[in-house]
Amino acid sequence: MPRFSSKKARPPTPPRTDERGLPSGRNSTAAEIALLREVCADYPCVMFGILQIAAIMELHPRVITAVAAHPGSPLLRHTKKGRPEWVLEFLRHPPPDFET
């Protein structure tokens, strides 16, 4: 009679890179964060997702999500992508109705 493990099957882990091959920002290592920062500095036209911006800026993803949800958000509406500089400027001079 075969024995079955009582342990539940683990769900597959999400990929650690996005569609462009950049680190996804989810559970990133120091080397991956350094790579994101290097890409951010060298390529001003590259857009980053919420988790990547949070990793670059060393903020909690919920802060970036709150920025993205605000009507005056600097992040693009349909993709929720943008640049860390845009988020930084938004957080430096937040609208009166913005709450994190």
Summarize the entry for a quick read.
With 100 residues, the protein is an all-alpha fold.
Record keyword descriptors for this entry.
single chain, 100 residues, mainly alpha
Main β-sheet: number of strands, strand sense, barrel status? none
**Uncertain parts:** none
> Which whole number gives the mean pLDDT?
85
Structural class: mainly alpha
**Element-by-element helix/strand order:** HHHH
Strand content: under 5%
Compute the number of helices: 4
Helix content: 25-40%
Number of strands: 0
Using the alpha-carbon principal axes, give the shape. Answer: globular
How far is it from the N-terminal to the C-terminal residue, by CA?
56 Å
The rounded Rg comes to 17 Å
Explain what the structure shows.
With 100 residues, the protein is an all-alpha fold. 39% of the residues lie in helices and 0% in strands. The protein is built from four helices and no strands. Helix 2 crosses helix 3 (61-69).
What topology does this entry show?
Blueprint: H1 30-42, H2 50-57, H3 61-69, H4 84-92
